[in-house]
Amino acid sequence: MLHGLRQAFINKLVQPLSKALVPYHTFDFWMQQLNINHRLSSISARLVERSWLDDDTVRLVFQPNTHFKRYLAGQHVRFSAAVESRVLERSYSISNIPSKQNTLVFFIKVQGKFSRFLAKQLKVGHVIEMSEPFGENHRATYDIFIAGGIGITAIWPLFYQQATAALHHKESVPRLLYMSNPERGYPVKPFFDRALEQYILCLNGRSLLSDHHTFNQYLKGALRVISCGSNSFNQQVKIITTQLSQDSGKPIKLTLENFAPVIEQKPSHIAQEFAITLTKQQKTLRVSNQKNLLDSLLEQGIKPQYGCKQGVCHQCSCRLKEGQVSPQRAAIIQPCISFPQSDLELEL
Question: How far apart are CA 200 and CA 175, in angstroms?
C-alpha cells in the first residue's frame, strides 16, 4: 500500500518537477540511493518475494518500474548492482509467462558472486537496476524442448507458451524433457502447470546422455529441437541429434542455449591504446586494452546490438577482419568479452 502511494506521488508531482529542474541521470541516481523503484530514463525492479527451493536454488519475484513495458516468453534481462565494491552485470532468464501483474519470476542457482548477492544479500523490498528484455528464441517453434538442470528456467516459458497454444488449437503438443540428477531432484517441477504434465518427462540426465539408443526414442520423429543447459550437456545433445539425423536421413534443426558460470576475462597488465575501424559505420576510434570492446564502443556513443554482456547469448557477435583480440577462437568474436591486442578492423 505504501509503495503504491509513494509511486503515485512520484508520478503526479515529483516526475514533472524533476524533468524541469534536474537532469535525468541525476534524478535516477537519487532514486537509486533512496531505494525508490522509479526512474526517468531507465528500468529498475523491486524484489518482492524470495523462496528457497533447495540448498542452492532460489525463486525470486521482482516488480519492475513503469519503463518496463513488455516481454516475450523465453527472453532474458540483465541485472546490475555493486557487489564487493564493483559494479557487476549478469543476465537471467525470465521464468514466467507475461501477465497483467507484470511481475518477473527468476529461478537462480547460486554459483557465483552475483547470484549469491541476489539470493542472499539483496533484501526483499530493495530495488535493483535492470535492462530491457532481450532474446529471439520466441520466434521459433519446436517439437522437443530439452532442459539440463537449471536450464529449465529458460525452457519452461517457451514450452508453456507453445504447448498451451497447441492444446487450444487442437494441434500436436511438443514434449519437454527435463533432465537432472535424481539425487538433487527437480526443484522447479512444483511450478509446472498440471494440464501439461502428460507432455513433460523428468529424466535422469546422467544416464540418459550416455544411453544414445534410449535418448533417440524420445527424439523420434522430431525435426526441431531446442536444448538449454551447460556447454558439456549441450554438446552431448548435439552429438546424439547429429547421429540420429544421419541414421534416419531426416535432418534435425537443433538450437542450443548454453548456461555457464561467468569466466571473467582479464585485461593486459600493460595499458595500451589501439585504433578500431568500424567498416560499416566508416568510423575509427581509439580504445584502451583495459576494457572490453563492447564497453569501449558504448562509452564512445556507438550502440551495437548486445544482450547478456557475458559471452553467452552471442547477440553482439561480429566479424574481426584485421587484428588480434583476447580471447580469440575464430574470425567471429564477441566484443563483450574481447580485449584488443592490436589495431582492429571490425565489421560493425
Answer: 6
Closest CA to 342 of 291, 302, 289: 289
Grid cell locating 11: 508520478
Dist CA 201 CA 218 (whole Å): 10
Residue identified by cell 517441477 is 189
Integer angstrom CA distances of residue 258 from 144, 227, 233, 238, 242: 17, 8, 9, 12, 18
Torsion of CA 156, 158, 160, 163, to 10 degrees: -130
Q: Strands (DSSP E) along the chain, which ranges? A: 43-54, 57-64, 76-83, 86-93, 104-109, 127-130, 144-148, 175-180, 200-204, 224-229, 253-258, 273-278, 283-288, 318-322, 325-326, 332-333, 339-340, 344-346
Q: When comparing pLDDT for 316 and 259, which is higher?
A: 316
Concatenated DSSP letters of 68-112: -----TT-EEEEEEEETTEEEEEEEE--S---TT--EEEEEE--S
Residue pair 166/174 in contact by the 8 Å Cβ criterion: yes
31-40, 43-52, 54-63, 294-303: which range is least confident on average?
Answer: 31-40
Nearest to 287 by CA among 344, 347, 331: 344
Q: Above 80 in pLDDT, residue 16?
A: no
Q: Quick check: 17 pLDDT over 90?
A: no
Report phi then psi at 122, rounded to 5.
-70, 120
Instruction: Report which of 103, 74, 105 is spatially closest to residue 191, judged by C-alpha positions.
Output: 105
Which pTM does this prediction carry?
0.77
Q: What is the pLDDT of residues 90-102, one digit of tens each?
A: 999 999 988 888 8
- Whether the per-residue pLDDT at 331 is higher than 80: the answer is yes
